Structure formats: structure tokens, C-alpha cells
Description:
The structure is a single chain. This protein starts with 8 loop residues before the first helix and ends in a 29-residue tail after the last helix. It is built from 3 helices and no strands. By secondary structure, it is mostly helical. Helices cover 58% and strands 0% of the residues. The mean pLDDT is 79. Helix 1 packs across helix 2 (40-59). The protein has one domain (1-73).
Amino acid sequence: xxxxxxxxxxxxxxxxxxxxxxxxxxxxxxxxxxxxxxxxxxxxxxxxxxxxxxxxxxxxxxxxxxxxxxxxxxxxxxxxxxxxxxxxxxxxxxxxxxxx
Length: 100
């Protein structure tokens, strides 16, 4: 709720609750037939695999502290280009840059 205007906060919270309860009720209704079809041990193992995948993905996200530190770069420092053969905005392209 960090980026929501104060005047809209209660409406946004209401929508979040409505969507959350709606989705959770659909999931609960779908759990019974899926457990009956696949079996509980199979779905439990699948849940563990999904948890591991999500944990691995989340571990590669930058922390808020890293984002804040990246924003505090000194004024004279240029960001490295992700395309080393292309000039950074405002720079001229050197003829012999490819051979360097």
C-alpha cells in the first residue's frame, strides 16, 4: 500500500479483499477434485517443488538496500553500458572501439 494515494486506500483495500476471497474460494473448490484425481502425495510433492522454485526466484531479486545504494551513485560516475559496442547516450562512437 506504499504507492496508493490516501484517498483511494480504503477502496484499494476493499478490492484486494474481494479479489483475495474470490480467488481463495475458487482454489478451495478446485482442491477437492484435484486431490481425488491425482492423489495427496503427488500434490504434496508438487507443492514442495513449487515452493523451491519460488524461493530460488526470490533469492535473485535485489534487496531494497541494494536499490537505494545504486540510486546514490556520485554525479560523475557513468553507468556501464550493457552493450559494450554501442556508445552511451551523449558519447561519440570511436572508429577503433571494436578492436579495443
